[in-house]
Design brief:
The protein is mostly helical. It is built from 3 helices and no strands. The longest helix is centred in the last third of the chain and has 16 residues.
Length: 92
C-alpha cells in the first residue's frame, strides 16, 4: 500500500441530493474507498483527461425539438386529425 502525503490540502464543500449521497457513499463503500477518495479520483481524472472523464450527452428524447414534435403528434391524435395504426397485426 502506497501512502501519499499531501503538502497543500484544500477542503471543499459539495451539495448533493440526500438520496444520491447515500447511493454514492454505499457504492464507494463497496469499492472500499471513502467519499473523499472518490472525489479525489474524479478530480485527478478530470485533470488527466482535460475534461469530464465520461460522456455528457442530452437524451435525444429530451431535446426541445423532439418534445415539440411529440406534443404536435399528441395534439393531432387528440383532435382527431391523425389516427393510430396498429402495426402489431402485420408482424404476428
Amino acid at each position: 500500500m502506497r501512502v501519499t502525503k499531501m503538502k497543500n490540502v484544500a477542503t471543499i464543500s459539495v451539495k448533493l441530493d440526500g438520496e444520491l449521497k447515500k447511493e454514492y457513499e454505499r457504492t464507494l463503500n463497496e469499492l472500499g474507498i471513502s467519499m473523499s477518495a472518490g472525489f479525489q479520483a474524479f478530480a485527478k481524472a478530470v485533470v488527466r483527461q482535460g475534461g469530464i472523464p465520461f460522456e455528457m450527452i442530452i437524451d435525444p428524447f429530451e431535446r426541445k425539438e423532439h418534445q415539440d414534435e411529440l406534443a404536435r403528434r399528441i395534439e393531432g391524435y387528440e383532435s382527431g386529425k391523425t389516427q393510430m395504426i396498429d402495426m402489431t397485426e402485420e408482424f404476428a
